[in-house]
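Field: COMPLEX_INPUT
Field: COMPONENT_COUNT = two
Field: RESIDUE_TOTAL = 875
Field: MODE = joint
Values follow.
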Amino acid sequence: MSLSAEELETLGREGAPLPLAETSSATPALTSRRGVLQTVWRALKTAPLTAWFGLIVILAYAFVAIFAPLIAPFGESAVVGNQYEPWGGKFIFGTDQLGRDMLSRLIYGARNTIGIAVLTTGLSFTIGGVLGLFAAIVGGWTDQLLSRAIDMLMAIPQLIFALMLLSIFGSSVPNLIVIIAVLDSTRVFRLTRAVAMNVVVLDFVEAARLQGEKLGWIMSREVLPNILPPLVAEFGLRFCFVFLTISALSFLGLGIQPPTADWGSMVRENATLIAYGDVTPLLPAGCIALLTIAVNFVVDWFLHKTSGLRDEH
Amino acid sequence: MSIKEAEAQLSSAGTTTDAALKSATLLQIEGLCIEGQSEERWHRIVKGIGLTLRRGEVLGLIGESGAGKSTIGLAAMGYARPGCRITAGRVVFNGRDLLQLGESDLRRLWGSKIAYVAQSAAASFNPAHRLIDQCVEAVVGHQLTAEDNAKRNAVDLFRRLRLPAPDQFGLRYPHQVSGGQLQRAMTAMAMACRPDLIIFDEPTTALDVTTQIEVLAAIKDIVRQFDTAAIYISHDLAVVAQMADRVMVLRYGELVEEAPTRVMLSNPQMPYTKSLWAVRSLRKEEEAGEKILLDVSGVDASYGTFKVLHDVNVKLPRGRTVAVVGESGSGKSTLARVITGLLPPSSGSIRFDGKKLPARLKERDKDLLRRIQMIYQMPDTALNPRRRIRDILGRPLKHHLGLTGAARQRRLLELMRMIELDERFLDRLPSELSGGQKQRICIARALAINPELIICDEVTSALDQLVAEEILKLLLRLQKELNVSYLYITHDLATVKAIADEIVVMHQGRVVESGPKSQVLTPPHHAYTELLLSSVPEMDPDWLDAILAKRQGAELGASPSG
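Field: COMPLEX_OUTPUT
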């Protein structure tokens, strides 16, 4: 290797080596892109029925959430009829305690509830994941300090802590997202740190260190890809938990505030109907249940794919 | 008189039945085919193997990894690993076809009539239970004898296997004993039921030569004492030569050659077998170096309060190879960590190319990091499994040399040519490569940025002999072409002979002997060097007996005077 980079470039620009250099740099990109699509398709083809079910349900929810204003027959908080009208006729699922259309509110509720849950889970994974990786790789005092701080946060029951913080800071959507995300990130931190610890001791991380790679590179390129499967599985679970936390807070009156539609508060608002043998309050609860199951089906399948587990015979 | 006659008659009858038993076939495998699943397709990994094992006979199975040795060993128990299936053949043990038996029948056989000794005893023992409880578990579980009886028997086995303090040994937990002792404890566990057949799956591969010889002697002894039949699986010919009566050479799941050990050693027939025999003949001509590249002087280092290195001195001339030899725990890998800056020394100094080397990794500049590279023992863990070879090799090129685009592509192709791999491998993941290919990629990564010193930490010990030889040849060729220096850490003296110019022998954190290869390898040796040298198994099937007799003689000769 006596040629410098520059000389090699000029060599590449003049004469013979050009086509070689060109084709060889173009083809791998192509093949790898095609490769990704192909592997995704091959994975989908062999996916079990449960995974397909989960995927379809999630896509349907996403579709409904995105196009809510186009699908919903009435407005989110428009009073369009009497209180507690029965199912059928103009109102497929009847109306709620203020005379708003139940179906429309379910559709808008998808948008609010799922949107907030996705944002919250994403934020909590960003916080917990980055700190967890950082603690695992740097180790020593930094790790001790971070871990003990997290332990302190975890020592307080989550729901009560959230209630307290919400009553201090006020119950707005941004506050809700940040507070739940921070409280949830403690669990993510613990998981990330634990699985990253196992990867950090491997030789390739040491090799990267010896090459003088910076912390950011080691975190994002060497360690993160290797702990992704458990993190994705955890994402699915956390997503459901966040979902349930928001619903619980809404049920207690400190979550998403009226007149915004969300499934948790819709259960509470219509709870009286249960006493009369009407199943309407179970509709939003069913929406939550179905999505939770769908997400976990997909996560299970993904885990099975990536962990390389084989069934015994 | 008549009583004596009767006794004589009895004993002669006994010997004849013994002989009859001995010639009786214990295990017969016919037309065994096994398939393994990878990427959702079934591949044939064992293609119609047949073998016969008589009572009290030891059969050696030899081959590289992927030859199907372990799979056959397990199939001899009627077992196929998850992801494997037995598609054809018969495994007849004591007149019964194991492949036709149900799970519960097999369970009754396993651990009572057939036992298995795995390669890594450390991974096979449950760390939460005492050794003796684990040793007697199978016997008691099969209700062959009462627990206290079984424990007495286990202590007796510990004694026969020459474990220290056999009465108390079983009370320890697996982490409290050494690797060699654990391997012997596992042999005791297998022996506890006095099985008819034991399968040894590379029981000494993970051990040092000095420990290996003890385990080999113990296994050989106990198999002989109880007249147990055994299948001994190994990739090390010299080891099998000590243990087996008959040897089968396997490749790609097929039989290459089968013969009694002595015949096989003296007169191998097939070219592949001959190539296996030739592996140990690689020798490098020793060359003296003038200019010192790396000078380690008076280095002490410790982990916490535990001192690992004591006053270590090593001089490495430019373009030469210094081999650091010693058993595990001798501090040779710690020396590598000190040189790379991962563990700052507590005293002493290291000079690199005439300048003092900063003690900590963080204090070293990028160019210094480029000039010292490292190759690891386990290529599986040294490559990030989620990154493609192109990214693994391309990153240091960009990071250190600033190469991008076409220039980087050219350098990548050049590197692949250097390590004799096809350029198509660039787009693969490490898991799609064999062990030897992975190690080549590790070498390419170290070479990519034109280093001056490469620290090789046991780079061939995880590889088969044939593959290891290829890697050594590659390292030698690259040294000649690029004038790079190697600090070669190993416990294998055959490798040392193949690659080194100078040798440093380490023992318990101290350098006990050092100098040019010819000088260290010719007598008179330091006592420890002598022990290391004499522990390397030789192809001669009588070697183990001879060396043990010699050592015993030395002990006997020494004891009266001392």
